[in-house]
Amino acid sequence: MPSVSLLGHDALSRAVLAATAIYIFVLPLSGTTAMRSLAFAVLVVLTLVAMARRRLSHGLPLALPWLAYALVSMASLIYAADADYSFGEIKAEVGYGLLIFAVTIAWVRREAEVATIAWLLAAGNLAFAVGSLFNLATAGFNNSGVGAWNTGVGATSTVIISAVPWLVALAARSYGRGLRALAAGFSLLVVANLGVLFLTMNRQSWLALGVSSLVGLICLGRGFWSPKRFALVAGAGLLFVALVATQLSIRHQSMAAPLVENANTSAVQRDVRWDLWRFSVERIVEQPISGGGFGRASFNLLYRDYHLSTGSPLWHAHNMVINKGIQMGIPGILAFLALWVAMAHAARRVLCTRPDLKAWAIACLAMLAGVFVRNMTDDFFIRDHALMFWLLCGALLGAAREPATREVK
Description:
Number of domains: 1
Order of helices and strands: HHHHHHHHHHHHHHHH
């Protein structure tokens, strides 16, 4: 029986493509839980059907890092402050994350299918950007920032940082194929994302995007550069700097009055996260082998009086890695980082061995860097954001499993 893939011509493949399109489109949008859950369930069921009919190949890249992370997460139930809560978080973040990673790997078999995933991401991203402009038109701009479709500024910036590398790859792919108008369209979508990122007034996001861009440029190698390309990158860099400078100026003006009242306190010193991180690291050192159980809310379950004693409204460690330490101790940090390092190594291997997937490998590595840096001052690597991340990673690794010249019927 012939194999199936995302762009196959049989009914099963078409059903998977439709479910994938719905899932990717609605995943970043708030208020779509029922629709995304239904699409996810359909994808899992169709994948199981295809495997039962022996039309999909087995095998899971990064199986050992995933297993280690899952085992450490499940072990946290032994000492969890609220085992029911932690189990629900493990199911949503580890279980569903692994499932969407495996499902995408199973169905994506060639470069054109990675491009299809990126196209679907771009469609959802366009709706996301429109949502931000809609909020701006209806609610107006304020110094606290504007999010998309009531998603919130932190989540909005995370979505953008995840998507921009793939949008740039789409623009480059289109330009390389002589589709100049299409490349211009994707480039405009990137600019729109920068505008939305500006509206969030989130400073850390610019650092994350800068690191993401730097990783992408390094991955391009020396052979990429020409006077024309250098001018293009320089122009993009100037736009980036202008947006950052303008945003910082607006934030500085909004903070000027409070700082005048307390002239001895700098903006950096006033950030309550410094004390929060210090407190969190001290707790991890005191209890290095265990924690409060999987899930961001474990911090609040363990240290309910923290916000009362400090006046801080923060209810988790506001750092993706430190949060894992609060939840699962040092074993949790090591297992989590091992999974990220393994994914980065796998993407780099694709970059070095598969010229046909080079643009997508660079996008994946840039996304890895950007999302990691973004979550050093908060933790949005959860649920829908983590699911989109693992879906995109799975698309790259799925295509890399097949020979470059093979066409799946």
